[in-house]
């Protein structure tokens, strides 16, 4: 009998199997089946003269059965394309995601729509690998990363090993993940009261720390100047931290608030803000000192010394002022509403006396204690009362005479009495108070009978002086 060969099925997908059946052989005959590059299969025909062998389909072509006595039979196998190996890739959470947020990538591998179990999948970005996963029962492999950079990144999942009827190795799927830039960490810094402030004034600095506009709670903030730290604060529910100092120097100082610790999705550590504070110099304490009457004064003349104490031009009330000369203290005064303190002395010696007014105590924003002022009081020799020549003018209508008397060298403020005649017991013509220069002048109306006196005497205290009295010559 002649051999015949039947293929079941005659058309098969690559990787599938088919059976070659030879009929018409002699019972027990050796039948050799050959196909493509597969090893030949030798089978004994059964009692009905049939033999069969099973192969894996690789390429289309002849399948041959050869019998030792029955000859050769052939049939053609058609190999169709295998089922598709498909890789799909998804990410969760969906884009966009915040920088640093974990992103889970899931690759699903299927062969002809069926899950491929145990496939090894490599996940990569243009920057390099980011993970490896193995497909499970659903054909899914996953990896998670929080290292994707800001911007849009293409992620690829590639099958690098798989056992399946599909050709999956090298098959890949892609997806894009958009990562938003991290929210900005912002530090603002303010000071109160606003500049400028007086030296020594407490200044409060407030740093506000926000992440994407939301307060950052519990951040540690260091406040510093170029000279060094001035304080540390911790932000509260509103994101603010404060510190207060009254040690800022005069001039303009730059203050910096720097975050040294924070728990937030923002990168806040090292972020800083600055502000400038202008501190004005303390107002000056000024002491002025005057004396009255003005120099020179005769010896023994009472001299009033007036010290005026001001702070920034305003009177300092209640300051204690010591008046002194090189010989020692001469008095103490307390400033009143006008900022003035006085003392009076008549014991200054002859010559130029340097008098100093020194603030011993004061309650003021100025540093007044120890501030001084000086003036010089010149004291002459002891004054000598001297009567000057006097004259009179007749009034024939009233039969009287008007006489003007003048004495110099009197003690300022003292009373000078002018007597008719040569001694202090004569009739009193008039009296006058000596001015600051020691001059006393008065005018008297004399009767015709008093014109017999041709002299007059000026007296003041224990001093007296006599001068002439006569008609005024035109």
UniProtKB/TrEMBL annotation:
Residues 186-280, 287-374 form the Big-1 domain. One of its GO terms (biological process) is carbohydrate metabolic process. Gene3D superfamilies: Immunoglobulins (2.60.40.10). The keyword DNA-binding does not apply. InterPro entries: Big_1_dom, Ig-like_fold. The keyword Aminoacyl-tRNA synthetase does not apply. Keywords: Signal. Residues 1-22 form the signal peptide. It comes from Streptomyces platensis. This is Ig-like domain repeat protein.
